[in-house]
Structures are given as C-alpha cells and as structure tokens.
C-alpha cells in the first residue's frame, strides 16, 4: 500500500474533495431558489348574469401563488323598448285652450272631448278625451288633419261646444278661454218597494221646454244613485227602467230641487 506522503495519492485526494465540494455547492444553490407554483388550469369565464339584483364576480391572480376576487358592479338588464315608440305618429296638429267659469276662474276638474267627424289620413278614435290641468288649460296633440267638434264640461257647470271646425296638418288651433256657465246638479236615487237600492237602472233626463236642450243618460251605481251635473234651468222629464221592474216616468222635474227619489215596483208579467 503506497504511503500517504506519495505525491500521487495526495493529488487524487485533492481531486475527489474538489468534486464533492462542487456537488454540495450545486445542491445548496437549488435549495435556495423559491418554489414555483404548479400550473393552474384556466377557469371558464363567468357567464353574464341577467338578473338585475345579481352581481358578477371573477377571480384574478394576486401574486405569490394566491388568488383574489374582484367584484363588479351589479349586472342590469336594459329596459325593454316601449312598443309605442315605434308606432308612426299620425298628424301633428294641436288644439289648445283653457276652461274657465263665468267669473273667469279656472276649472281644474273639467274635461274636453274632441269628436272626429272626418280625418284625412290614419285611424284614430272617434272621441279623444283629455282632463284639464290645474290652471284650467288643456291640449289635444298629434291630431291628423280633418273636421272636429269639441265639447267641454266641468262639475256643476253646463257643457260648452265649439265647432264644427277644420284643422290642417301641423297647424295649431288656439281656442283661448272657453267659459262654462254654472248649472244645477240633480241627485237621483232609485229603490224598490222595500227601500233597497236598485243597481244598474237606466235613467234618461229629457227636456220638456225649449230653453232646456239636450237629453242626459246615466246608470245607477252600487248604492242605486246617480247625479246629473251642469243642468241649465228648465223642467225635465225623468224616465227610469230596470230589469225585472216596471218602468216609470216623472214629469216636471226641476233641477234646482237638487235631489229626487224614485221607487220602482216589481214587474207583474
């Protein structure tokens, strides 16, 4: 066995020690490197949420191998289109005015009916009604050219009439202030022989004098009553009919009385 002082043995030991030192250095270098997270499979993108009360949430990388959640604004569904917006506008004429009483006061509880006698184009209802604003003003818009009659009224006032008149395409007819004369209100109650109200009775109030023009019609309500507003002075004839009852007719009804009761007997037939 060669001696340790042999130069060849010494050189071999140095070589082996150098190889071991290099291997240890490589292992230490790999141990010092940060660990790499395993690959994460991509997640499917969140589907749109159509519920207006829902919220859309999506996950995004936050670093250091972790994940964070980002919450978006509430998902909303756009409002459905108004089908009326797609309808073509027929005509663009207007009728405007104002309803006042005999003293010039506004009539906010009034109404205006526009009766179409004949229109040049388009299909419109034969009667168009608008309610009067708080200052008594009214406006009927988007009208086709044609011939019309306007009738206006208000509680405790007689109706007023304007026309027939013609309006042209895209024209504006300003009626100004329409004055409604005050009238009487006649409250009618209909009952049977036992005093129970008769619902749905048909009532006609007819004039019996030349100064009281026009026939008024109404039906009794759930309490067996109805009211005729805006009656001019003059005597009236009242006719009342109801299914299962004999019809009655009263002459000489004065609207200034304010109230009248009528009793119907059972039909004997």
Characteristic key phrases:
4-stranded antiparallel sheet, elongated, Immunoglobulin-like, 269 residues, 43% strand, 1 helix, Protocatechuate 3,4-Dioxygenase, subunit A, mainly beta
Structure, explained:
With 269 residues, this protein is mainly beta. Among the domains are: 89-179, Sandwich (Protocatechuate 3,4-Dioxygenase, subunit A); 184-264, Sandwich (Immunoglobulin-like). The chain is built from one helix and 16 strands. The chain has one helix spanning 7-32, and strands at 55-63, 66-74, 93-100, 111-119, 127-131, 137-143, 146-153, 160-167, 172-179, 184-192, 202-207, 216-219, 225-231, 236-241, 248-253, 259-264. The radius of gyration is 46 Å and the shape is elongated. The protein starts with 6 loop residues before the first helix and ends in a 5-residue tail after the last strand. 16% of the residues are buried.
Topology:
Elements: H1 7-32, E1 55-63, E2 66-74, E3 93-100, E4 111-119, E5 127-131, E6 137-143, E7 146-153, E8 160-167, E9 172-179, E10 184-192, E11 202-207, E12 216-219, E13 225-231, E14 236-241, E15 248-253, E16 259-264
Parallel strand pairs: 3-9, 10-16
Antiparallel strand pairs: 1-2, 3-6, 4-5, 4-7, 7-8, 10-13, 11-12, 11-14, 14-15
């Amino acid at each position: 066995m060669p001696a340790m002082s042999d130069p060849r043995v010494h050189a071999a030991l140095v070589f082996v020690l150098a190889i071991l030192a290099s291997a240890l250095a490589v292992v230490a270098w790999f141990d010092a490197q940060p660990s790499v997270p395993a690959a994460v499979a991509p997640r499917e993108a969140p589907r749109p949420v159509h519920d207006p009360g829902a919220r859309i949430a999506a996950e995004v990388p936050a670093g250091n191998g972790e994940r964070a959640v980002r919450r978006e604004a509430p998902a909303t569904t756009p409002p459905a289109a108004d089908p009326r917006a797609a309808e073509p506008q027929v005509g663009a004429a207007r009728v405007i005015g104002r309803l006042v009483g005999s003293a010039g006061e506004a009539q906010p509880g009034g109404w205006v009916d526009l009766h179409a006698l004949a229109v040049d184009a388009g299909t419109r209802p034969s009667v168009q009604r608008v309610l009067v604003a708080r200052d008594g003003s009214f406006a009927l818009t988007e009208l086709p050219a044609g011939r019309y009659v306007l009738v206006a009224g208000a509680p405790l006032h007689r109706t007023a009439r304007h026309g027939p008149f013609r309006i042209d395409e895209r024209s504006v007819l300003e009626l100004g202030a329409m004055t409604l004369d005050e009238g009487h209100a006649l409250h009618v109650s209909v009952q049977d022989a036992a005093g129970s109200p008769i619902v749905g009775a048909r009532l006609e109030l007819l004039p019996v004098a030349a100064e009281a023009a026009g026939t008024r019609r109404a039906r009794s309500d759930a309490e067996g009553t109805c009211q005729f507003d805006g009656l001019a002075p003059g005597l009236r004839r009242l006719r009342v009919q109801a299914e299962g009852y004999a019809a009655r007719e009263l002459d000489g009804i004065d609207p200034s009385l304010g109230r009248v009761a009528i009793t119907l007997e059972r039909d004997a037939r």
